[in-house]
Structure formats: C-alpha cells, structure tokens
Amino acid sequence: MPYLSPISPGLSWYEDTAGTRPDYPALDGDRQTDVVIIGGGFTGLSAATHLAKAGTNVVLIEAHRFGDGASGRNGGQLGTGQRAWAEELEGELGFTRAKALFDLAEDAKAHLLEFTAANGIDIDYMPGQMSVAHKPRYVDDYKAHAEIMASRFNYPHVSFMDAQETAERLGSTHYYGGTRDTGTGHIHPLKLVIGTARVAAAAGAYIFENTQSTGITSQGGKVVVTTPRGTITAQKCLIAVNAYGGKLEPVSASHIMPIGSFIGATVPLGADSNVIPGGESVDDSRFVVRYFRKSRDGRLLFGGREIYGVNDPKDIHIHIRKQITEIYPALRDVEITHGWGGYVGITVPRKPFVREVMPNVISMGGYSGHGVMLSNFFGKLYAETVAGNRDRLKLIEELKIPPFPGGRRFRTPLLFLALNWFALRDRI
C-alpha cells in the first residue's frame, strides 16, 4: 500500500520515488539536552545536523514522519534571492540591506548543493529556472530585472526572453516573455529530507518521529518541552513547525498562516515532447503562482492551486488538469498518476519569520513559497547562533513581520477574502 501522509492530502509522487524511507523511533522517557528542536522538516533536520556536527547535544521531535509536511511535498524549486525581487527589496530597505539579503540567499543555494554533494545525497538536481509573464504589461519588468541583476547585484545568470524564445523554451504560447536563470535549479525534496535525517542521525543527533509536542515553557534559564511519553529539558529550543504549528506557540501562530498548495504528476511525456525541452523549472507572474517542471523521467509536475485555510480539497486532479490544459492544450487528456498537497507557511509581507518568541526559544518559518533553499540554510544559521555567532541570522530577525489582522478568529476569513481578490486580479 502507498504511504499517505496523515497531515497532508493526496498520493505523492515523491513518496513513490524516494527509495527507502527509514523509520525512526518515538520518544519514550525524559531527556536532558543542550538544544531541543520541534519539527522534522528542512529547518529542523538541518539545524540538528549542524548542531550535532559541532558537538552539541540535540534532541529533535517530529509529530508524524519526517517529510509528511511541506518539506517532503513541495514544488522542489530553489529560486534565486528572496521571495521578492532584489530591486523591490532595495526600494523598501535600501541597497545595502537588499544586497545582504540577496547574498544570504546565494549562500543558501551554494550551501544546499555543497551539503548534498559532501554527504552523498542524490536530490535529482536539474539546472535552470524560468520566470514568465502571464500579462503583456509585465514583460518590461522582466527585461529590466535581468539587467538589474547583472549590473547591481552581480548576478549574471539571468537573461531576458521575448515571447518567441519563451514559447520555444516552454513549448507553449500561453506567456508573453520572461527570464531564464541558469544559476539555479530544482530538486526532489523528499530525497533531501530523507538524506538530511540520515546525516543528522549519523552525526549524533537524537531524532524522533511520531512524537507530538504538547507544550513549551521557558523559565529559570531552562526550556521544557512536553510530549505524551516524556519531557525534554534543554538550554535552548528551536520551533521549526512552520505551517503545522497549530496552537503550539501563539506568537508564531499569529505571524505564520498555513496555505495549501497542490501538485499533480503526469505520466512520462516521452522524449519527443516539446514541453520544457531544456528541463528548467517554471514559475509565473500570478499572485496565486503556477509552478511546474519536468522530472528526471519526463513527467510534468504541475502545481498551482492554492487553498487558504486548512480544509483538504477532494478534487486535486480536476483543478490541476484544468490549469495544465490552459498552458498545454495538447495535454488535456494526459493521465495524471498522482495528486497531492501540503501546507506552506506565509507571512503578511511574504518574508521569512524568525523571532525569539520566549527566552531561549527561537521560531523559524513563513518562507512563503521560497523555503526549499532558505529553510535548510536557516537551520545552519540557527546552529551558528547557538555557537555564539548571530550576525547572519540577525539579517532575517530584523525584518519587520506584522501579525495577520483579525486575531485567531478572523484572520483566516480575512486572508481568504484578500487572496481571492488577488486571484481575481490575476485573471483580469
């Protein structure tokens, strides 16, 4: 029987192709440790790995299995920079901070590729990413962006594509132009989760699955995390649950909102297919972004339906097929073998949320769809902070991230209305 995540809907192609997925034990009994980590996705497993390699005693707990949430089920695109374009951040924060944030993201990209290579983790890396305009009026922005990246941010890997080149590289005339980035790529995310957990365990981290945190307190210089079958007492704590925090910690919950993003996988399209012949990943200019790519074996992995709130959709295939057909009419009858989703964390300004939410307790999340690359690196930055160097993490901590309006009662319906308004704008 295929494995189905208990917290994320649908049957994932990643599950069927990730190879052996080890089981780790549940916590049974009390523990004393230097650092306790709550959450076994990219952020938590990366932090556990780097802490353990530095000689820190670390215990990590995950409520379900590693990769059951968004870390094991996302679109797999690395991207470049932060979620916002570098020139947008420059307009908001000034050039110095914008360049520092861009360089931090480039460090994150390099770290991910170096870490996987050094530890023998095959993540199915494929190079290239295209960002495309779904409205003609956006094309000039993409052209200017390519020039700015080279001239102001010392990143020469982005080139502008006119409508003809875009059509040739996509195999579709649906878009009006865009950019091609040869300095990034896309991966199989669950293979990264599985590999990082293996490295963390080998480095000496104590990692536990199926262990739900039932509470966190911090007083007297100690952090206490309770679970159904044991209490963990530590000097420091990292909360790395992102969209799956629920009511665990109120400050994080007020700043990070879960949204559901859903993906479909087709059968292999064949060597003669004109769909993305160069193998790049693609994202478009919609606010409710569509993102798609081909796998190593030639399947189209297409994501694009977002749900705001946490009600699981029952019709993933239907909606994904409709969106595929808009871009690739010849694929209207293609077989979709898998349809799945996961909940990612967003913030109001779509920038990451990093904050010390109580003494000795740092929370990380809200990557807003840009977390494959950033979240793994943030785990490393947390380990640096524990070792006494908080300089790089402070670049993120200092970002102004307001809470969602409306409090716990009204924030979901307010967000639903706002984001559906943006989705309507995408169509006008």
Structure description:
Residues 34-384 form the FAD dependent oxidoreductase domain. InterPro entries: FAD-dep_OxRdtase, FAD/NAD-bd_sf. Keywords: Oxidoreductase. It comes from Aminobacter carboxidus. The structure is a single chain. This protein is an alpha/beta fold. The chain contains 12 helices and 17 strands. The protein has a 9-stranded mixed sheet. Strands 2, 3, 7, 8, 9, 10, 16 and 17 form an 8-stranded mixed sheet that branches. Strand 16 and strand 17 (361-365) form a beta hairpin. It starts with 9 loop residues before the first strand and ends with a helix.
Secondary structure topology:
Layout lengths: L9 E2 L1 H5 L13 E8 L3 H12 L4 E4 L24 H8 L1 H24 L7 E7 L6 H13 L6 E4 L1 H8 L7 E9 L2 H15 L2 E3 L6 E5 L2 E6 L2 E10 L10 H6 L1 E10 L14 E4 L6 E4 L5 E9 L7 H12 L8 E11 L6 E6 L2 E5 L5 H16 L4 H7 L9 H21 L1
Query: What's the end-to-end separation, in Å?
Result: 44 Å
Please provide the count of β strands: 17
Order of helices and strands: EHEHEHHEHEHEHEEEEHEEEEHEEEHHH
DSSP strand content: 25-35%
Strand order of the largest sheet: 1-15-11-14-13-12-4-6-5
The backbone outline, from C-alpha atoms, is globular
| Rg result | 21 Å
Q: Please bin the fraction of helical residues.
A: 25-40%
Task: Tally the helices.
Answer: 12
Mean pLDDT across residues: 93
Main sheet specs? 9 strands, mixed
